[in-house]
Amino acid sequence: MKKIALITGATSGIGEACARKFAQGDYDLIVTGRNQPKLDALKASLSEWGADVLPLVFDVRDRQAAIEAVDVLPDRWRDVDVLINNAGLALGLEKEYEGRFDDWETMIDTNIKGLLTMTRLIVPHMVERNRGHIINIGSVAGDAAYAGGNVYCATKAAVKAITDGLRIDLVDTRIRVTNLKPGLVETNFSVTRFHGNKAQADNVYRGIHPLTGADIADTAFFAASAPEHVQIAEVLILATHQANGTVCSKDPDREESLS
Ligand code: NDP
Ligand code: 8X3
């Protein structure tokens, strides 16, 4: 029987790359997201690696929908080996005293409460089997606030505390808990942050040779594939020309030099 990975926010970026990596790595997959056609297309493309794929359509902010989706999981899909809590977003870069209330709520409800909901629903089954791995997608943004990052950074600092707390709660089990903290990854992330402004989003990654979703997926798979006695507790993954959440070296001629 193949192992099962459940990935939230699998319709784009890091989540989609994780789906591809784990499918190639001989996992069957539960892929969740809000966009049914994208999940269906992902399922079709993952069949190339022989992965059995179950798409689940729900918004992680909708706790009742998440409960119902997990409640009706067919028996064959109940034993999740790897939970990747990836669904998340940043909205805006306004100063805290000028921020939009709606944006704050969306980030907190998705990045913190959505992640907690999925953890609460899936981890009890892991505890019953004394087996499993939770990989939370945190961020370098959780290490220290940057200008305009205020609430987003706070949500990723919360992911760190929640991940560390879960690791403590599971210390007498064989279940492993990982916080993956990427730096600049070129995905749809900045397009979402800037409310669809693609030019503004592209500018974030210009001259830095950013990470890709596949780079993060490789690390997630590495953590999941480590020998059972090895727990990769936390990984900070930065682009070579990024030193931390605020210090980057940008050179317009660089893109080609590193590719
Ligand atoms: P993308 O925007 O490409 O992907 C985000 C994914 O999360 C999408 O599939 C999106 O679905 C999903 N999602 C967002 N909100 C919800 C929701 N309420 N319910 C279900 N799914 C939702 O960005 P990334 O791949 O970059 O982001 C993935 C994670 O990585 C996030 O947690 C982000 O904070 C984190 N991260 C990203 C970094 C980066 O530089 N890109 C760096 C560090 C961390 P939909 O298409 O429906 O919106
Ligand atoms: C995403 C990385 O630096 O844009 O968490 O916040 S950053």
UniProtKB/TrEMBL annotation:
SUPFAM superfamilies: NAD(P)-binding Rossmann-fold domains (SSF51735)
Matches recorded under Gene3D superfamilies: NAD(P)-binding Rossmann-like Domain
InterPro entries listed in its UniProt record: NAD(P)-bd_dom_sf, Sc_DH/Rdtase_CS, SDR_fam
Domain of life: Bacteria
Pfam families referenced in this protein's UniProt entry, alphabetically: adh_short
Sorted UniProt keywords: Oxidoreductase
GO MF assignments: oxidoreductase activity, acting on the CH-OH group of donors, NAD or NADP as acceptor
PANTHER family, alphabetized: ALCOHOL DEHYDROGENASE
Assigned protein family: Belongs to the short-chain dehydrogenases/reductases (SDR) family.
Name this polypeptide is given: NAD(P)-dependent oxidoreductase
Organism field: Hoylesella enoeca
